[in-house]
Amino acid sequence: MRSSKFVLLAVAASCLAVLAAAMYLQLVKDMLPCPLCVLQRYAFLGIGLFALLAALLPERARRVTAGLSFASALAGIGVAGKHLYVLANPQLSCGIDPLETGLNKIFLSVWWPDFFRADGLCDTPYEPILGLSIPGWAMVWFLICAIATASVMLQRKRSSMFGERR
Fold this sequence. Notes:
The protein has about 170 residues and is mostly helical. Helix content is about 75%, strand content about 0%. It contains 7 helices and no strands. Helix 2 packs antiparallel against helix 3, helix 2 (about 35-55) runs parallel beside helix 7 (about 135-160) and helix 3 runs antiparallel to helix 7 (about 135-160). About 35% of the residues are buried.
């Protein structure tokens, strides 16, 4: 039980660090987020909040909230995959489209535009960081979060398979 709380808190802290890195890249390095970047930020926010909630809730509710964190990670994997596809095929830009317009009308975008407003283009070729593009790093972290939250979801199931009680 304690190890699952530690894993969930580590996932929440990782998501906070990724979001802080995104703000650094945006505000210091002038890398404007595109609509797919903003969707990935929402996914990291969902992963982190649900993981934190799972760590704070009793064990019965932990699997459900860890499952919501896992679902957020899967959504992030899908969006990061789409972003990587757009980068590999520059003729497919997400540019100014209904996705951007819709995202920029969500209350969080109005409330905190520096973080949730999509102003960039998805096919902007920013310089890689340690050999990976920004959506490539997002994919790595989404996969790590998905594996970690899946392990928490399956932990109780595994122990109950062997007849152990918690």
